[in-house]
Amino acid sequence: MKELNINGAVVQTYPLTAAQRIHFYTVSACNRKELLSICTGFYLQYDQVDFDVLKECIYQGYEKFEAMRLRFHTDEEGQLVQYLVPTEDRDIPVVDFRDWKEEDAHEEMLRWSRIPIEMNGNPMSEIKMIRMPDHYTGIYMKIHHMTMDSSSIIGFYSYVLQLYCSKAFPEEHIDPPKDPRSYLEQLKLDLAYENNSKAMQKDHEFWLKEMEQPEPIYTNFSARNRLQEARDLLKMPELRGAFNYGDIEAAIKVYDLEKEPSDRLLKFCTENHVPVASLLLLTLRTVFSHFSGNVSDVSVKNAVARRGTLLERQSGGTRIHFYPLRTIIPPETTFMDALRIVQAKENALLRHANYDPLALMGEIGAHYGLPQGTTYECTTLTYQPLSVQSMKGKDLPDINFKSRWYSNGVAMQNIYVTVMHRSIDNGFEFNFEYQKNCVSEDELEKLYFYMCRVMFYGIEDPSRTIGEILDWI
User: Fold this and answer.
1) Buried b (16+ CB within 10 A) or exposed e, 441-458
2) 415 and 358 housed in the same domain
3) pLDDT digits (tens, 9 = 90+) for 147-159
4) Based on the structure, what is the number of domains in the chain?
5) Mind listing the pLDDT tens digit for each residue in 314-334?
6) What is the DSSP secondary-structure string of 267-299?
7) 254 plus 160 within the same structural domain
8) For 375-428, what is each residue's pLDDT tens digit?
9) Hey, how many other C-beta atoms are within 10 angstroms of the C-beta on 387?
10) Is 317 part of any domain?
């Protein structure tokens, strides 16, 4: 941490956190700056929105959420550092799409989403107030992933929505939202951890012990044998890793699971005290096992939000870390016992999830002699339990709304699976971000189809074995 004179102002700067370094590494590797743009829309079915009041609420959101005022600067040593600006007073324009077809309006916002945010000293977000067809009104937001993640974005939307309602509907006696916690306070704790703290040493010991196991092996998401392709390309017949990237031009395919089956899954998890994330991880690893000849040893990359404390939940910023979650589940294991295995593994991983994932990736590669660019995991899973639905407090007006995630047009791996909840009915929404020239929509369709078969066949009778499920699907 040091003071720098930036554009005539002396500011306190801070190093990047491990979560930020992951993002910076990926964007540096592909040289496509739009990769780190998270682009979302949130629209109320209410066309009497007072845009002056809404703008005032957004400005107050900028003030209270410190991470919304982050800037990045390359110092004299060539290191990227971060700092806060005291205010964010850029104009927030209104864009009127009421005379457009809805899908044409979304296409225009997709175009905006593919324009990168320039990092060095520039604002890290862009917000527009939107008028949509069918009486919907709301916000489009593009934000840099090194400043916010999905939890932070939902928190920001929630703050602005509740603040607006408290101002716009005085007769409802709606309380204004509570202020979020300090991003800088959490940042200092993260940097103290990284200064070779005892907690960091303990976490490192855990991951070193994980590497004492025999080498993992790549498992697939389709019938295509990517492992054999890598072995042939590198002339390494014993290779156990494969390439999980290609042409980075990307799109998002969304599959909506109906409310009734979604409720069945949630009920099963609640009654059996199983996290939804564990059910999804078991589902994915079972499907990958199926496509790889029913192997027992499967690794999945798991995204960890790291928001266990009140400060972590409310301080904004980006806190996502990515770790391999490897399970060896023999075919005679029951579905319920397999869930417990995944749950135990996930819990162990969560206890040590502050360790630098970028450093761990290098250590794993060096330990097993993994060729650069290859990996054991064919996809990454994110489960987002928070949703726009959860933003509607009991005392807020009952107004319908829509949310949208806009692709920035690029991705650094073949498939990235994000499972969220729909704003309308809280049903599951499966988002597959995929590289368009590496993965076909037919492969996505099959992956989603097999995921559903595994989940519902498993919860229907949890005493069924994994081997029986694999034979059935």
Assistant:
1) eebbebbbebbbbbbebb
2) yes
3) 999 999 999 999 9
4) 2
5) 999 999 999 999 999 999 999
6) HHHHHTT--HHHHHHHHHHHHHHHHTTS-SEEE
7) no
8) 999 999 999 876 555 555 545 567 788 888 999 999 999 999 999 988 778 899
9) 17
10) yes
